[in-house]
Amino acid sequence: VGDNPASQVYVRNKVKACADVGLYSELHQYAADIAEEAVLARIASLNRDPKIHGILVQLPLPAHIDNNKVLEAIAVEKDADGFHLYNLGALVTGGAVFPPCTPYGVMALLDHYGIPIEGQNAVVVGRSNIVGKPMALMLLARSATVSICTSRTRDLKQYTSMADILVVAVGKPAMIPG
Q1: 111 is catalytic
Q2: Which of 19, 45, 55, 59 lies at 20 to 30 Å from 153 by C-alpha?
Q3: Tens digit of pLDDT for each residue in 34-53?
Q4: Which residues contact 2 (CB under 8 A, 6 or more apart)?
Q5: Which candidate, 24, 176, 167, 23, places its Cα nearest to that of 108?
Q6: How far are the Cα atoms of 65, 107, 109, 139 from residue 114, in angstroms, in the given order?
Q7: Catalytic residue among 3, 14, 20, 164
């Protein structure tokens, strides 16, 4: 929805990735002034469509559209980004249908490179529902000792210097110096 340049890049890459691996995909683009009800109606239609197995809504949405309302409209079993409250909440018990993509990717990278997680001091800088909180829960589920820091954490260096695993997801360049 809209013409956010970063969103355009992400969407283009997602469409290309689907094509590269032979997945069927549809792209639904809308003007920034589309009514929230129209977006919700489209999601309801995709939820009912048996040939659609996953739905992604590219964030951010324009200010007049409630992100949470839109994300909650996606059927849990089609929530490919893992942003539905069910999937986020299920991270607490380890039962998410789809975990959020970025934290899942970080865990996959740690596993790929054989980086031990159990018993490690993990510091997550950022508290978003998209990366920070799910990342912390995934690390905790693998028996890491997890600290969550924010842009307002006093003496951030104290936490980051003790980290065996450091995940930074704040969108602020150079927040963590070398």
Answers
A1: no
A2: 59
A3: 999 999 999 999 999 999 99
A4: 30, 31, 32, 61, 62
A5: 167
A6: 42, 11, 8, 15
A7: 14
